[in-house]
Amino acid sequence: MNTFIPIEWYYQLYLNLCFFLVLFTLLHTRILNINDQKNLSFINVTGYILLFLLIFHIGQRPINHRFGDTINYYRVFVEYANGAEINTNDDYGWHVFMRFMARNTSIHIFFSICAFVYIYPMYKISKEFFGNYWYYAFIMFIVSFSFWTYGVNGMRNGAACSLFLWGVSQHKNKVAMSVLFLIASFFHKTTLLPIFAFLLTYVYNDPKVYFKLWLLCIPLSLAAGSLWVQLFANIGFGDDDRLAGYLTSQSSAGTFSKTGFRWDFLFHSAFAIFSGWYFVIKRNYKDNMYFKLLNTYFLCNGFWILVINANYSNRFAYLSWFMMAIVIIYPFLKQQFFKDQHFMIGKVMLVYFSFTYFMYYFF
């Protein structure tokens, strides 16, 4: 356990480390060419150090109420360590994993392995798609608004969504992709939504159509938000009481600062929507894998918009938000669009991180 850092500084240390890295990366993008050996050395060395430090920082965190459900995971871990058996069929794969870890390791080894499962796939998909430039995608992942929350609070959901990303990175190997998708769904059933959406893109993959469907979800939610909440609770997730509860139950204090139609979070979601619109429609960018990622985001975010009035809609918002970083950065690392594109990457990174930073310090 990391006892060197006061608990009240734990998140702020992460956040301000990101602030420093984003500014330092912005400086590099301003003065160095993206292919400059100095830049390549910087982004690769920094990236690997960041990968290790984040796994350690999150995995060795103290067991404290400041880290949300960390305490609840600890309590279940202790029960399994003391011989308790699995008494639920919900997310059975996660409980098998947790029971095995509880009977063979300590709590902080368990947390560290969970942190690895959560963070390593972000590196893996970045490396697979962008090669030597993987750092830019990786840092976009780790400065995302939802990154910290699903590393220390919604651990099961975060790990499952990262396993989905790992599966996408193995898209050339359909067996490996299928296995990772299966494990992800066993860890958290909600990942069936992005899995289904991604597989649907193999059948139909026109982003202009998916974009129109996403737009349609906004008036549908405004006109009949409660209807969609009840509908999905009854037929979409009705076979899982916990998932249905996310839609219909009253939220606990601190779930969101307010409920109802969240225009602020719709604005946040629109970062990736605008990026997709700009590159696909305005700049006529064509890339089949990018279309798959973007269309998966359209579908998952559209679903969240329909149930945005639910008290626990943040659980479903993450099913698209975890992809936002790669949807935004992908075209920048694949094709030249701007005269000084390297500097543009730095500016995009700064704007994207600013939402995370200002939401903490000002909202």
What percent of residues adopt helix (DSSP H or I)?
over 70%
**Low-confidence runs:** 235-241, 250-257
In what range is the share of β-strand residues? under 5%
User: Helical region count?
Assistant: 17
Task: Spell out the helices and strands N to C.
Answer: HHHHHHHHHHHHHHHHH
Quick synopsis:
By secondary structure, this protein is mainly α. It is 70% helix and 0% strand. The two termini are 30 Å apart.
Q: What brief labels describe this structure?
A:
363 residues, mainly alpha
Structure description:
The chain is mainly alpha-helical. 70% of the residues lie in helices and 0% in strands. The chain contains 17 helices and no strands. The protein has helices at 10-31, 37-59, 70-81, 92-102, 107-130, 134-142, 149-152, 155-169, 174-187, 192-200, 207-236, 241-248, 263-282, 288-306, 314-321, 324-329, 341-361. Helix 13 runs antiparallel to helix 14. It is globular, with a radius of gyration of 20 Å.
Would you spell out the secondary-structure blueprint of this structure?
Blueprint: H1 10-31, H2 37-59, H3 70-81, H4 92-102, H5 107-130, H6 134-142, H7 149-152, H8 155-169, H9 174-187, H10 192-200, H11 207-236, H12 241-248, H13 263-282, H14 288-306, H15 314-321, H16 324-329, H17 341-361
Helix pairs in contact: 1-2, 1-17, 2-5, 2-6, 3-4, 4-9, 5-6, 5-8, 8-9, 10-14, 11-12, 11-14, 13-14, 14-15
